[in-house]
Write a structure and sequence with these properties.
Layout: E1 2-13, E2 17-19, E3 22-24, E4 28-31, H1 38-50, H2 56-59, H3 72-85, E5 88-98, H4 108-118, E6 126-131, H5 137-140, E7 144-155
Bound molecules: magnesium ion.
Amino acid sequence: MIGFGYDVHRLAPGESLVLGGVMLESKLGTVAHSDGDVLVHAIMDALLGALALGDIGLHFPDTHPEWKGADSIAMLKRVHHIIRNEGAHVVNVDSTVVLEAPRLRPHIEAMRERIAEALALDTKRVSIKATTSERLGFVGREEGIAAYAIAQVEYD
Ligand code: MG
């Protein structure tokens, strides 16, 4: 089964920027109830979507104090648990982050490793790509960051 996920977070000065479980140097960070890891959020929605298990809003309500400032990698581990409890396993994940800055290339390997570890996967099965929005739209104006992900999940 294939699942798709999409997420956006607003950017603001004085906030931290965490992507793929890696804290990045940036003048702008994401505004969010959790740590605002837009990439991990998109991946979680793709994983849940593959098994038609709803979305992260259902599993991690942002009204809930438990998820205030939450480490999204811990949430991803929880999603992996849910999938294993369904008698299924993750085959692979592919994703794209859309942002103007900072450049993600030097951090992609560390991000892949963090996500792969949370999903008990070989790093080769986790793909992360990055692109800018060519200065167009809300991403181009650095008002936000978007991420898209797809995942394949199969029953054991
Ligand atoms: Mg989110």
